[in-house]
Amino acid sequence: MTRKLSVAVETYPIAGRFVISRGAKTEAIVVTATLVEDRGLGRGECVPYARYGESVESVVATIERARDALEAGVGRAALQRLLPASAARNALDCALWDLEAKLSGVPAYATAGFDALSPLVTAYTLSVGAPEEMREAAKKAADRPLLKIKLAGEGDEARLAAVRDGAPDSTLIVDANESWSEESLPRRLAACADYSVALVEQPLPAGADEALADIRSPVPICADESVHDRASLAPLKGRYDAVNVKLDKTGGLTEALALCRAAQDMGFSIMAGCMVGTSLAMAPAVIVGQMAKYVDLDGPLLLARDRIPRLLYEGSTLTPPDAKLWG
Questions:
Q1: pLDDT at 17 over 80
Q2: Is-catalytic flag, 150?
Q3: Alpha-carbon span 282 to 129, nearest angstrom
Q4: If pLDDT is split at 50, 70 and 90, which confidence band does 138 have?
Q5: In the chain, where does the domain assigned CATH 3.30.390.10 lie?
Q6: pTM of the full structure
Q7: pLDDT tens digit sequence for 148-181
Q8: Helix-strand-coil percent breakdown of the chain, rounded to 5?
Q9: Which fold has domain 120-318?
Q10: Residue 314 — pLDDT band, cuts 50, 70, 90?
């Protein structure tokens, strides 16, 4: 067996701007790992995230530190012990899944325990902005069945009213990205209920979760920044109703699937989420989406251009990936 690893940093422009409570960006910078073994080639993509102390440079360096082990034949199980849950491990883990599928002829979804993959309806994200801006954005996306609204704290009630006015028939998910305070929580959750919000993501900063134990929320609450892998799951019981499973947080599909099963056993609902990346990053997450109540895999829809081959989106309906892309 001869296996070779290559790493690439790629940039994809975002259509307009992507704005959340922590700031704005106009491009998605992704790191892609490629493993070539015999006649098989496997790829995985990750998105370094500064919120978790990552940079493009640190992710590439972490992958390079694992090069010798990967090229010596390390598999997915050993990779979990070699690297912590991180974007770097995600790229490598997904590349190993893809490589295994290419070499064996067995689709990744079958290895993951699924008979087939079903199409998914994904949320479509609206960036945070002034209420009138968000109303107009909601009007343009009003034909989409599920919208995810980024919020930022002060003025969020007006933003909610504007979006609901612009998209009266869409199901709404709110993502506060840790921007709410404990004092404002009851008022803002009540506003979410008034506007028929289906789910609220990460209202409080990670580490402030204990306040949720004393709140009887009128809207289900989903952990995002507070949950990464199975080790972070137990303290969330009784505080959250759902967990957002993202491959860049779990460190790949292997841990993501284990996290989903553990979370479901504990009574949590699953949300399949993503960073802003290309179709290659979304493809393995489609498997996670098979276990999810809510799906947020709209990364490619937010880009001005995607990689080729790419996933097929028909409106908000996502078709499972072709093997030429991944898996």
A1: no
A2: yes
A3: 26
A4: very high
A5: 3-105
A6: 0.95
A7: 999 998 999 999 999 999 999 999 999 999 999 9
A8: 35, 25, 40
A9: TIM Barrel (3.20.20)
A10: very high
Query: Which pLDDT band, with edges at 50, 70 and 90, does 232 fall under?
Result: very high
Distance CA 131, CA 166 (A): 10
CA distance 70 to 64: 10
In the chain, list all ranges with CATH 3.20.20.120: 120-318
The average confidence (pLDDT) of the chain is 96
Structure tokens at 183: 């004092």
| Burial group, residue 2, by CB count within 10 angstroms (0-12, 13-18, 19+) | exposed
pLDDT tens by residue, 24-75: 688 999 999 999 998 899 999 999 999 999 999 999 999 999 999 999 999 9
Q: Which of 25, 102, 237, 246 is catalytic?
A: 246
Q: CA torsion 220→225→230→236, rounded to 10°? A: -40
User: Which DSSP symbol is given to 22?
Assistant: T
**Is 246 assigned a catalytic role?**
yes
In single-letter form, the type of residue at position 200 comes to V
Q: Which of 150, 237, 249, 324 is catalytic?
A: 150
Before 119, cis peptide (omega within 30)? no
Give the domain 3-105 fold.
Enolase-like; domain 1 (3.30.390)
Q: How far apart are CA 212 and CA 201, in angstroms?
A: 12
* Helices assigned H by DSSP within 123-278: 131-140, 156-166, 185-194, 247-250, 253-265
